C-alpha cells in the first residue's frame, strides 16, 4: 500500500503528567451539547489505575523528521526487525481524571438500566459518539437514547477535556484499566443517578474496541455484552497481526494546536489523510470537515501498544456484535468481506453465547460519520433489543 504521509509534530512542550482535575474544563459547551432526547449529566471521573505499561524503545521525537523515520521503520519489511516497544518492567500505579457524560433517555421504555459504555478510537474523543453536526444523522448517543438505552461516554485519557499524559507512556494498558474502573463505578451507581445498572455493554470504536476486547479477555465477568465497531481480526490467534494493517496507514501527524501535549502525540496530517484512512467515497465533505474539526491527537504508544493486547476471550460468556464498514482501510486493508469470512470473532469469543458480525455497506473505518450511519445504529440497537 502506498500512503502519502504528511508528517509533522509539535515542538517539545512541557511535560503534562501533572495536569490536575481543577484544570479540566467543564465538559458541557457548544461543542459538547447534550443530545436533546436525553437527560444528561457531566462528570469528572478520578480513578487510580494499576497497569503494566510498555516503554517506548526509540529516542523521543525531536522533530518531524524523527516521526517520518519512525513511521518508515514501522511500515518497512522487517529485516532487520524494528522493535518499538520495551516490555513492562514493573507495575505502574497512577491516578487519572477524565471527563465523562451520562445520559438517560427522556422517554424511558424500561431499557434504561441497560447502560452502554462507549470508548472512542484514536483520532477522536467522546464526541465521536455524540455528533453535534446533524445529530439526527450522526449521533450514536441520540439514536441509542431513542431506542431506550442509557449511555456513558467519555474522553479517553489524553483527549478532549480529560487529563493529558505523555504520548510515550503506554496507553492501551492504562486505558483498559481505567475503563475497568468506569464499569465498576457504574455498577456501584456512582454516576448514574436514579438508574441502577441491570446490564452493562461495552461499546467501542477501533482502539476503543480493541481495549474493550482486551478488558473482556482479562475480566470475562465484568460486562454482559459488547458492541465492537471499527475492528477486525486479520489473525485471531495473534494480536500483533491484528495491528499490522495500522502500520502502512500510520496516521500522518500535524502540529496540534493543543498545548500540554508532548512530542509523543501525533494527529491526522490533514483532512485528506483522515479521509483516506477513515472514509470511503462517495464522501460527504461537510461531514468529513466536521469530523476533522473535532479530531484529536493520539499517543504514539497508544497506536503501537495495540500490538501487545491479548484479545482472545474464551471465558467470556456474554453476547457480542463485531462490526465495521465494508471498506474499512485500517482493519481490513480496504476490503472487509474476506477478513470477516475468516471468522476471527468466533475464535476470539469462542465461549460467548452470541457472536454476531455485520459489515455496513459502503462505509470505511469511521462509520459514525458515514452515509446511512442511522442504518448502522439500527443494526446495533436491533442487536441490543434481541439480546438484552
Ligand atoms: C464508587 O463510589 C464509592 C463511594 O464513594 C467509592 O468508595 C468507590 O471507590 C467508587 N467506585 C469506583 C469504581 O469509582
Ligand atoms: C497467526 O499468527 C501466528 C503467529 O504469527 C501464526 O503462527 C499463524 O499461522 C497465523 N494464523 C493465521 C490464520 O494466519
Ligand atoms: C442503511 O443501512 C441499513 C442497515 O444495513 C439498510 O437496511 C438500509 O437499506 C440502508 N439504507 C440505505 C439508504 O442504504
Ligand atoms: C508510566 C510509565 O510506564 N512510563 C514509562 C514509559 O516508558 C518509558 C520508556 O521505557 C519509561 O521510562 C517510563 O517509566
TrEMBL record:
Entries under InterPro entries matching the protein: AB_hydrolase_1, AB_hydrolase_fold
Pfam family, one: Abhydrolase_6
Record domain AB hydrolase-1: where: 119-369
Entry keyword Mitochondrion: no
Secretion signal, residue range per the UniProt entry: 1-21
Keywords: Signal
Protein name: Alpha/beta-hydrolase
Amino acid at each position: 500500500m502506498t500512503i502519502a504521509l504528511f508528517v509533522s509534530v509539535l515542538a517539545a512542550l512541557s511535560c503534562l503528567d501533572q495536569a490536575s482535575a481543577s484544570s479540566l474544563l467543564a465538559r458541557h459547551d457548544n461543542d459538547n451539547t447534550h443530545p436533546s432526547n436525553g437527560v444528561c449529566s457531566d462528570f469528572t471521573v478520578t480513578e487510580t489505575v494499576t497497569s503494566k505499561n510498555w516503554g517506548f524503545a526509540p529516542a523521543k521525537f525531536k522533530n518531524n523528521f524523527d516521526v517520518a523515520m519512525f513511521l518508515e521503520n514501522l511500515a518497512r519489511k522487517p529485516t532487520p526487525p524494528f522493535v518499538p516497544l520495551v516490555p513492562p518492567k514493573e507495575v505502574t500505579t497512577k491516578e487519572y481524571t477524565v471527563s465523562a457524560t451520562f445520559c438517560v433517555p427522556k422517554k424511558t421504555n424500561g431499557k434504561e438500566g441497560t447502560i452502554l459504555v462507549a470508548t472512542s478510537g484514536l483520532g477522536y474523543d467522546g464526541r465521536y459518539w455524540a455528533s453535534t453536526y446533524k445529530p439526527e444523522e450522526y449521533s450514536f448517543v441520540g439514536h441509542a437514547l431513542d431506542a431506550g438505552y442509557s449511555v456513558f461516554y467519555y474522553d479517553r485519557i489524553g483527549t478532549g477535556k480529560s487529563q493529558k499524559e505523555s504520548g510515550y507512556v503506554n496507553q492501551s494498558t492504562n486505558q483498559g484499566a481505567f475503563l475497568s474502573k468506569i464499569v465498576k463505578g457504574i455498577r456501584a451507581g456512582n454516576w448514574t443517578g436514579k438508574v441502577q445498572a441491570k446490564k452493562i455493554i461495552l461499546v467501542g470504536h477501533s482502539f476503543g474496541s480493541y481495549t474493550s476486547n482486551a478488558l473482556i479477555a482479562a475480566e470475562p465477568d465484568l460486562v454482559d455484552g459488547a458492541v465492537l465497531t471499527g475492528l477486525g481480526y486479520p489473525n485471531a490467534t495473534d494480536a500483533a497481526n491484528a495491528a499490522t494493517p495500522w502500520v502502512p496507514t500510520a496516521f500522518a501527524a500535524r502540529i496540534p494546536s493543543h498545548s500540554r501535549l508532548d512530542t509523543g502525540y501525533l494527529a491526522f496530517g490533514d483532512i485528506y489523510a483522515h479521509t483516506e484512512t477513515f472514509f470511503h467515497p462517495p464522501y460527504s465533505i461537510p461531514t468529513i470537515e466536521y469530523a476533522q474539526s473535532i479530531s484529536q491527537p493520539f499517543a504514539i504508544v497508544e497506536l503501537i501498544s495495540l500490538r501487545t493486547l491479548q484479545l482472545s476471550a474464551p471465558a467470556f460468556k456474554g453476547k457480542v456484535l463485531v462490526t465495521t464498514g465494508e471498506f474499512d482501510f485500517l482493519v481490513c486493508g480496504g476490503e472487509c468481506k474476506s477478513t470477516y469470512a475468516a471468522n476471527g470473532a468466533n475464535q476470539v469469543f469462542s465461549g460467548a453465547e452470541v457472536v454476531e458480525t455485520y459489515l455496513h455497506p459502503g462505509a470505511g473505518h469511521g462509520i459514525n460519520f458515514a452515509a446511512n450511519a442511522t442504518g448502522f445504529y439500527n443494526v446495533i440497537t436491533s442487536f441490543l433489543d434481541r439480546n438484552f
